[in-house]
Write a structure and sequence with these properties.
single chain; 337 residues; alpha+beta; five-stranded mixed sheet; four-stranded mixed sheet; 11 strands; fatty acid biosynthesis; lipid metabolism
Length: 337
């Protein structure tokens, strides 16, 4: 093969020399610094097509023998460290610049440019410190973070217990576990969903940045399913839909709450973040479908056990005024306080 010289572009900083060799798809590279002279040899596609290219550069001042280089599809990047950190007036020992060498204007900076850049960065740092010093620090920040961490931890442990309990019973009992899910996990689900009311309170107090309305809709919807549909109707407690609702809820929460826990302490686990924002895509629609099935199944039961529902709510000292309900006899009845 004919030996050719590639185009080389250079730039410098106080302590480094940057070289960009215009050689694409380079291979068989041999780059070294011997006696203050950089030797380059390699095969690739350059100005004269696919050939073997080489060049040498005797530097203006001493450099360290260690050479760092990185080859890409478009070029070869080389970095050489100077023995002493200061700016050179030229790159090579000889005053006349080699024909294949040119400035790398994409990275070119003069000493005054660097000084100005450092000065601007220092001014920005000082200004940021001044701004932070004027912003009053929250004396209760540690308490708030501790509260949020403990809340998410308790919720994570609660929903993890539900998930593990249901999974183990599913493997042991099979489909038979569908029909007693409520009786085996309802107490813990009651606790977790009563705790979830705090997710509506926290945005109002400014403890989290979550929007208030979405949190209210989710907590209210789940609590209606749990306390009204499942809790008030004994017939619903033995249906398989309870298993699917509880299982889908817990699948979402065992990833959501630890994600929030790590966020409180300023830590991120990439796998957990991916699971948090990926699993909800299938799980939330499935959970909505399961909740809708529960509502549809409960409609006929509410019509049959209306008095039971009213007495139950009255016994629990929950005062609710029901709207007019159409009865089969063609009359209307009001459930008053």
């Amino acid at each position: 093969m004919q030996l050719l010289t590639p185009h080389v572009y250079w730039a410098q900083r106080r302590g480094e020399i940057f070289l960009r060799v215009d050689l694409s798809d380079a291979k068989n590279l041999n780059i070294s610094v011997e006696e203050n002279t950089l030797q380059f040899r390699g095969q690739g596609h350059g100005a004269k097509g696919e050939n073997e290219y080489k060049f040498s550069l005797e530097f203006r001042e001493p450099v360290r023998p260690e050479v760092e280089h990185r080859s890409t599809q478009r070029q070869v990047d080389i970095r050489v460290r100077k023995q002493s950190e200061h700016w050179w007036d030229r790159l090579t020992q000889q005053e006349k610049k080699p024909l294949f060498l040119a400035p790398d204007f994409d990275r070119w900076l003069t000493e005054s440019d660097v000084e100005m850049e450092l000065k601007n960065k220092e001014e920005e740092r000082i200004n940021s410190i001044r701004v932070e010093s004027r912003v009053p620090k929250d004396p209760f920040l540690g308490v708030k973070r501790g509260y949020l961490f403990m809340y998410n931890l308790v919720q994570f442990l609660g929903f993890s217990w539900i998930f593990v309990n249901m999974t183990v019973r599913l493997f042991i009992l099979g489909q038979d576990s569908f029909y007693d899910t409520f009786h085996s996990t309802a107490d813990m689900m009651y606790f977790c969903q009563m705790m979830a009311v705090l997710e509506v309170v926290n945005p109002l107090l400014g403890l989290v940045r979550t929007a208030f309305l979405p949190a209210l809709l989710q907590v209210t919807g789940r609590n209606v399913i749990l306390f009204v549909i499942f809790g008030c109707l004994d017939e619903m407690q033995n249906k398989a839909v309870v298993f699917f609702v509880f299982y889908l809820w817990s699948c979402v929460e065992i990833f959501r709450y630890p994600f929030y826990m790590l966020g409180v302490v300023g830590t991120e686990w990439k796998l957990l973040t991916w699971l948090r924002y990926s699993l909800w895509i299938p799980l939330y629609p499935l959970g909505t479908i399961a909740e809708a099935v529960a509502v549809v199944q409960s409609l006929s039961l509410f019509d049959e056990t209306l008095m039971f529902l009213y007495k139950y709510l009255k016994f629990q000292k929950v005062h609710i005024l029901f709207p007019p309900l159409y009865l089969k006899k063609g009359t209307f009845m009001h459930c008053s306080r």
